[in-house]
Amino acid sequence: MVAARPNLRLILQATMLAVIFPAVGCADEMGTPARQGGLVAKLEYCKTCHGLSGQGYLGYFPMPRLAGQQPEYIEAQLRAFIERRRTNPIMFNVAHVLSPSMLTALATHFRGLNPKPFGGAPRGSIATGKKIYEEGLPEANVPACSACHGMEGKGHHEIPRLAGQLYAYTISQLTGWKKERGQGSAVDTSAIMAPTAHNLTRSQVEAVAAYVSQLQ
Amino acid sequence: MHKARKLEVMKRIGLKIAIMAIVASAAPVWAGDDENPGVRNCTWCHGTSAQGYMVAPRLAGQRAQYIESQLRSFHEHTRDNPFSKQYMWGAVAALGPREARDLAIYFASLVPKAANDGDRDLAARGRTIYLDGIPEANIVSCYACHGPNAEGVRDIPRLGGLAYFYLKGRLEQWGQGYHSGVESPMPLVARHLGPDEIEALASYLSFVK
To answer: A60–B192: do the CB atoms touch at under 8 Å?
Structure first.
C-alpha cells in the first residue's frame, strides 16, 4: 500500500489542476491580501462553530476539528463548497463570501493549533479500528487508511488529517460520502475515498472513527 | 380547577409518569403532581404548565440537559444577568443536583406552546438569518447548533416559541458582557448581532412551533 503514494500524487495533481484553474479566473476582487482586522474577525466567526480552539464542536450537526488540519485540504474543501461539488446546508453560505486570499489565510491559521482531541467516542472498538486503520480489510477491498492518511493520521497536503477528529463527524462523512461529495460532473479528489467509504460496514466505520478520534 | 378537568389532568400525568419511568431509569417520584411543592415553587413564577409568565421563560419542552446546565449555572452564580440574580439565584439555592435533574426531566416532558408575540413583518428576515446567518457580517447560522426547527439538542436549548422579549433580552445581554455558562459559544455569536438582527431573530423564533 505504501507504493500507492506516488500514484496517488499523480491522481491528485491531475484533479487538483482541474479544480484550481477555474478559480484563478475569479481572483481576489479586493485586490489586496486580507486585512489583519478582517482575518481576526473571520477566524472568530469560524471558531464560533468549530470550537474556540478549533477542536470541533457538537452542535445539531457535528462540526469538524480544523486544528492541525492540512491547509491544502481546507482550501480544497472550501472551494468544493463554493463550487457545490461538496454540498452542505451550512458551508456554502459560509464559504462563498470568502476571497481567495482570505481562504488561504484561514486555512494556514488552523494548521498551527493543537488542542486535545474533543473526545467522547466509545472505547470498546478502538482495537478493531486500529487494525482496520493500519492493515485495511483486504477481503472487503478496503485499503489501509494509514497508506494515505499516514501512520499517525496527520494527513498530507490534500489528504486530510484524521487524528483527533470528532467521532460523530467521521461517521457522518464515511456513511454519507456519495450524498455530500463529488456532486456535479467535475471529477475531484473525493473520488479517491468513495470506494473505501462504500466498502466499510457501519460497525467498521464506527470502529475506525473511534480509533482516529483519540489520536493526538 | 374544576374537578373533572383536574381528574383528566391527573390521568394524563399518571400516564406521563408511567412513560417517564420507562424512558428515564430514575423517574422522579413526585413528578407531575400538580400540588407538589417542588414543581409549584417553579411554576409560581414560570406560569401554568411552565409555559412562561412575564419575565420568567417557558420551561415546558425545553431540553432536559439544558435546564440542568442552567440550574447549575444559577447555583454557581455563573449566569449573572439581573433577572437571574434577582430571581433564580435564590430559587435554586437549596436545590440539590438530584432534585434539579428530576425537575429538568419533568419540565422537558411538558408540551410547549409557542408565544407568537413577535413582529410578524420581521419573521421572514429572522428566518433567513436563522438558517443562513449573514456571512459577510460574520453572523453565524443558528441552525448549525439549534437545529432546523429551533428544537435544540442535548444541552443546546430549544428556541422555537420562546417569548419575544425573553429572546431579545438574552441576545442583547451577551453583547453587554453577561454570561450563562462556561465555554459557551453564545457571547461570540451575539457579538456581531445588531439591534435589527436581534429583533428579526426574536420575532421569527417566537412563532416557531
So the answer is: no
Listed in sequence order, the residues at least 6 apart from A130 whose beta carbon sits closer than 8 Å to its beta carbon are: A211
Q: What is the mean pLDDT of each run of 10 residues along chain A (216 residues)?
A: 45 43 37 59 96 96 98 96 94 94 94 96 97 97 97 97 98 96 90 96 98 97
Residues B138 and B47 in one domain: no
Nearest to B144 among A44, A47, A60 (CB): A60
Is B42 a domain residue?
yes
Decide: B163 and B197 in contact? Cβ < 8 Å: no
Q: Which residue of A has its CA nearest to B149?
A: A60
Q: Which residues contact B89 (CB under 8 A, 6 or more apart)?
A: B74, B77
Q: Is the ipTM of this complex over 0.95?
A: no
Q: Is B119 exposed, middle or buried (0-12, 13-18, 19+ CB in 10 A)?
A: middle
Question: Considering the domain boundaries, does residue B99 fall inside one?
Answer: yes
Q: With contacts defined as CB-CB under 8 Å, which chain B residues touch A34?
A: none
pTM for this entry = 0.86
Whether CATH 1.10.760.10 fits A5-111: yes
**CATH fold label, A123-213:** Cytochrome Bc1 Complex; Chain D, domain 2 (1.10.760)
Nearest chain A residue to B129, by CA:
A93
In a domain, B152, yes or no: yes
Which residues on chain B are in Cβ contact (under 8 Å) with A90?
141, 143-144
* Domain containing residue B148: 120-207
- Burial pattern A124-159, b for ≥16 Cβ within 10 A else e, equals ebbebbbebbeebbeeeebbbbbbbbeeebbbbebb
CA distances (Å), origin A94, targets A145, B27, B164, B179: 30, 43, 27, 27
Q: Count the domains in chain B.
A: 2
Check which CATH number belongs to the domain holding B64 and give it.
1.10.760.10
